[in-house]
Amino acid sequence: MDVWMVSALGLTASTPVAAVFAVISPEHTTDLPRALILLATMIVFSSVGATTLYSACIKSAGARSASIVFAVIPAAASVMAWIALGESLSPLTIGGLALGAAACVVQARSAPADATPPSEDTAVTAPPEHAVEKPCLR
């Protein structure tokens, strides 16, 4: 499936739900232009950009290899919070980061040697029309 199609479908399905929550939300803003700029930035980078990149990752590396991204997200968020917000990294958090890194290494090394992502050339195609048996109509 085309990565742009996946992004378009996801955005189309989630926009009405997000609009309903935005309308019924009791929150108010005093700086509407800034809020709209931030909203547009979040939509482009967090929604459309991330979904498109993840779909491209699945298409190029396969679902098994791309699934490790979900294990990396919490670790990346912890490190970014430590760098950008000055959050502390507790010993438990550091242990979790090390365990997650080890899981990534194990997953990367356990991939089958002949597992290559399907390409356009090796994709399964429909058999020729003359090879397809027509059902009997009685």
Summary?
With 138 residues, the chain is an all-alpha fold. The chain is 67% helix and 0% strand. It is flat, with a radius of gyration of 22 Å.
Give your account of this protein's structure.
It is built from five helices and no strands. The protein has about 140 residues and is mainly α. The longest helix is centred in the middle third of the chain and has 30 residues. The radius of gyration is 22 Å and the shape is flat.
Shape: flat
Secondary-structure element series: HHHHH
User: Which range best describes the helical content: under 10%, 10-25%, 25-40%, 40-55%, 55-70% or over 70%?
Assistant: 55-70%
Gap between N and C termini: 37 Å
Question: What's the total number of strands?
Answer: 0
Average pLDDT reading:
76
- SS strand fraction: under 5%
User: How many DSSP H or I helices?
Assistant: 5
Low-confidence segments, given as residue ranges, are 131-138
Radius of gyration: 22 Å
Describe the sheet with the most strands. none
Strand pairing plus helix content: what structural class? Answer: mainly alpha
